[in-house]
Design brief:
Strand order of the largest sheet: 6-7-5-8-9
Number of domains: 2
Order of helices and strands: HEEHEEHHEHEHHEHEHHEH
Distance between the termini: 109 Å
Strand content: 5-15%
Helix content: 25-40%
CATH superfamily of the largest domain: P-loop containing nucleotide triphosphate hydrolases
Oligomer: single chain
Length: 336
């Protein structure tokens, strides 16, 4: 028997000993890398080269990909540096590139070659232009070349919000539709935001609790602001019982284009009219939190237009719409 064969038999007959710990290529800085792919030797599906399975990496970031797939393993087994202490928000968002790893910042975004920082001062401008402070901090205001003045010049009118408020049954929806029709006949573009209509879509997830009423008015105020910015006469028809919420909507339009119309009709008149039968249900206890019955209505203190009943009778829709149109003409909203 030749010597090489004897040596192989001797090795085969040797009792098994303790196995050396596994060594993974990705734990070494000299391990081969293929740009844009993850390498995982623990997956049973080996490729034809025998080097392990390959999976597409959406961010082309080798370290982040390995940390994601093996996030339950110690950092030492991943070839990653020890975790760094958390940085303050002022440090900015870290940029992770395809093949270069991170720049010493937390792994928050794998953006390839796309920068994740904005020029200084943009966030301050966004805070000034937005009506409320958003919860998200990584959003920025983007200006467009065509502005409100350009749209108003095209429409030959000025955008504004006509906010009609009053008790249920005071004639808000009737006035809104009549006003919209009158403006349409004059060649002016208007749009009606009716409270009940909006609760079929935009606000269908809201009820009539105090907090839901606040959110309802906030949403409508933001939408009305957009319509006014588009150059339209936005006619918002809502009970909007709380003075603070109406003033918050007024504050969204700092250029004086918020026109509050108060239909000052008595509760007795509104309840006698009761076009929807809601007062009857509220008196029977079948509707809770109904404005004027078991929920307060806070009348405006400094509205632009106040329309009152005459001898216990509500004015006609055309008369009420005429008052609003006259005001809009005098203030220059119906021409450039």
């Amino acid at each position: 028997m030749d010597a090489p064969r004897a040596a192989r038999l001797a090795v085969a007959a040797r009792p098994p000993g303790p196995r050396a710990p596994a060594r993974f290529p990705f734990a070494s800085s000299t391990a081969p890398r293929r740009a844009g792919w993850w390498w995982c030797l623990r997956d049973p599906r080996a490729d034809s080269s025998g080097g392990g399975s390959t999976f597409p990496s959406p961010g082309r970031c080798t370290r982040l990909a390995l940390a994601h797939r093996n996030r339950k393993s110690p950092a030492a087994n991943l070839g990653l540096p020890p975790p760094r202490p958390p940085r303050s928000p002022a440090a900015g968002i870290g940029k992770v590139t395809g093949d270069g790893g991170c720049e010493g910042r937390p792994l928050v975004e794998c953006a390839g070659d796309r920068p994740t920082q904005e020029p200084a001062g943009v966030e301050e401008k966004a805070s000034e232009m937005s009506s409320t402070v958003p919860k998200s901090s990584n959003i920025f205001w983007h200006d467009c070349g065509v502005g409100k003045a350009d749209r108003q010049k095209l429409l030959k009118q000025k955008g504004c919000v006509v906010w009609i408020t009053g008790l249920s049954g005071s004639g808000k929806s009737t006035l809104a539709c009549t006003l919209g029709r009158e403006l349409h006949t004059r060649g002016k573009l208007a749009y009606v935001l009716d409270g009940d209509n909006l609760r079929h879509g935009l606000n269908k997830d809201l009820g009539f609790k105090a907090e839901d009423r606040v959110e309802n008015i906030r949403r409508v105020g933001e939408v009305a602001k957009l319509f006014a910015d588009a150059g339209l006469v936005c006619i918002a028809s809502l009970i909007s019982p709380y003075r603070r919420d109406r003033e918050a909507c007024r504050a969204l339009l700092s250029d004086g284009s918020f026109v509050e119309v108060f239909l000052n009709m008595s509760l007795e008149l509104c309840e006698a009219r009761d076009p929807k039968g809601l007062y009857k249900l509220a008196r029977a206890g079948k509707i809770k939190g109904f404005t004027g019955i078991d929920d307060p209505y806070e009348a405006p203190l400094n509205c632009e237009i106040e329309i009152k009943e005459v001898d216990g009778v509500c004015p006609t829709p055309s008369d009420m719409a005429g008052q609003v149109v006259t005001y809009l003409e005098e203030k220059g909203f119906l021409h450039e």
